[in-house]
Design brief:
The radius of gyration is 24 Å and the shape is elongated. Strand 21 and strand 22 form a beta hairpin. With about 375 residues, the protein is α/β, with parallel strands linked by helices. It has two domains: about 160 residues, no CATH class; about 180 residues, Rossmann fold (3-Layer(aba) Sandwich). It has eight helices and 24 strands. The strands form four sheets. Strands 6, 7, 8, 9, 10, 20, 21, 22, 23 and 24 form a ten-stranded mixed beta sheet that branches. A five-stranded antiparallel beta sheet has the order 1-2-3-4-5, with no helix packed on it. A five-stranded parallel beta sheet has the order 12-17-11-18-19, with helices on both faces. The structure holds guanosine-5'-diphosphate and adenosine-5'-diphosphate (ADP). Adenosine-5'-diphosphate binds next to helix 2, helix 6 and helix 8. Its EC number is 2.7.4.8. Belongs to the guanylate kinase family. It is an enzyme of class 2 (transferase).
């Protein structure tokens, strides 16, 4: 069965439900036997939109786990059911960079998370105009020179690349700054956030927990830069399996002896930690070369040469354009009607201030999705003749 056939809009109303939320800011969307009520607060927190589900067959209300960062509440919303278990939520009277949101209630991601967490799940994704270049995943054993190569790239092309700042439970080294090199965090806090679905991937590496939050990748991409992730092979495997379409690069040392010398010369680890990293390095190099995850293997013998090879494979030359798409803002009217025709959503202003211009939201080339961002949205104003 095609996924789209399972969903249809029964009605699209504001404030017509009986669950006791009682706010006229609520919006109800019905899909099959279920009503999704998008409410002005999340678990009593007025800063987040809440979601409740009413099942007609059992006449029961439930509060799902909400993954991803959702929109902040505003005066009102329009909602419309899309295919693949997504609800398009349009914030009324807001700027285009904050007006288009997707609530996934039965998308492939949500179904997988529902199975994984064993409970009802919905997930938010923010609609973003334009597309972004593929993120770059760089892996390799400790001491091979990943950090050095990434620093060189970001220094030479500061407006082109941004670093995804990982979370880790390891202690900071003396030159490392919280929020710049890592988000240094407590294990229980990080485990809770992983359980809340805030991480794209995570892994236990050299006895500590490391992970990439969805937000850390999206913050870089939102700024129009190409995101670089320095993560281990397990993390790269998880990213490869996720919806994030990335370029995967593995960095190898010229020899184990050279790797050991570099680790010692760096002087950031104790002897015990160096031994642990060297033991793990053999397995990492084997996995990196044979797992089929990495489409590029770089040998970091001579640093300048390796850096040149890295730039070549990323297709960078000196006059490469800055990434990101500049788009002019469009404000969505406070009072409007929404109609849907295939992949196009027509937003028509209503009320006294009507200028008769219609805003057309084209969803035909959207990509990505919850949790995080749905990109590739085209938003245009169509003047009335
Ligand atoms: N899976 C995963 N691995 C990470 C992440 N951040 C860093 N790592 C990896 O953890 C390992 C240890 O990193 P670190 O403690 O900074 O030591 P270094 O590699 O010797 O500089 C390296 O292989 C990193 O690539 C992350 O967010 N996720
Ligand atoms: N090609 C190279 N030749 C010699 N030393 C290198 C080379 N690349 C990196 N280094 C040095 O090796 C050490 C480890 O590099 P680093 O970038 O911290 O590795 P990683 O981030 O992979 O753990 C650093 O002291 C760095 O200056």
């Amino acid at each position: 069965m095609g996924e789209a056939a399972a969903f249809f809009v029964d009605h699209l109303v504001n404030g017509q439900h009986t669950n006791g939320f009682g706010e006229d800011r609520d919006t109800t969307v019905q899909i099959g036997d279920r009503s999704y009520v998008i409410d002005g607060s999340h678990e009593g927190n007025p800063l987040f939109l809440g979601v409740q589900i009413h099942d007609k067959t059992t006449n029961k209300w439930s509060i799902p786990t909400v993954l991803g960062t959702g929109p902040k509440p505003c005066k009102g919303y329009s909602a419309i059911v899309l295919k693949q278990g997504r609800i398009l939520v349009i914030k009324k009277g807001s700027a285009s960079d904050d007006s288009i949101w997707f609530l996934e209630v039965d998308s492939p991601f949500v179904r997988e998370q529902r199975k994984l967490l064993g409970r009802e799940v919905v997930a938010w994704s923010k609609g973003v105009r334009g597309n972004a270049e593929k993120p770059i995943v760089i892996s390799g054993p400790s001491g091979v020179g990943k950090g050095t190569l990434i620093t060189m790239l970001m220094k030479e092309f500061p407006s082109m690349f941004g670093f995804s700042v990982s979370h880790t439970t390891r202690s900071p080294r003396c030159m490392e700054k919280n929020g710049v090199h890592y988000h240094f965090t407590d294990k229980t806090v990080m485990e809770k956030e992983i359980n809340d679905g805030k991480f794209l991937e995570f892994a236990s590496v050299h006895g500590n927990l490391y992970g990439t939050s969805i937000e850390s990748v999206e913050v870089v991409t939102d700024s129009g830069k190409r995101c670089i992730l320095d993560i281990d092979v397990q993390g790269a495997r998880s990213v490869k399996a996720s919806s994030l379409d990335a370029v995967f690069i593995f960095v190898c040392p010229p020899s184990m002896k050279e790797l050991e010398d570099r680790l010692r010369a760096r002087g950031t680890e104790t002897e015990e930690q160096i031994q642990k990293r060297l033991r793990n390095a053999e397995a990492e190099i084997k996995a990196g070369k044979s797992s089929g995850i990495f489409e590029h293997i770089l040998y970091n013998d001579n640093l300048e040469e390796c850096y040149k090879n890295l730039k070549n494979l990323l297709g960078i030359n000196d006059d490469a354009p800055v990434n990101g798409v500049e788009v002019e803002g469009i404000n969505l009217p406070k009072e409007h009607t929404v109609t849907k025709k295939e992949d196009k959503i027509m937003i028509q202003e209503t009320g006294e201030a009507t200028k008769n211009d219609m805003i057309v939201l084209d969803l035909s080339s959207i990509n990505g999705g919850a949790p995080g961002r749905t990109r590739g949205i085209v938003l245009d104003t169509v003047k009335s003749s």
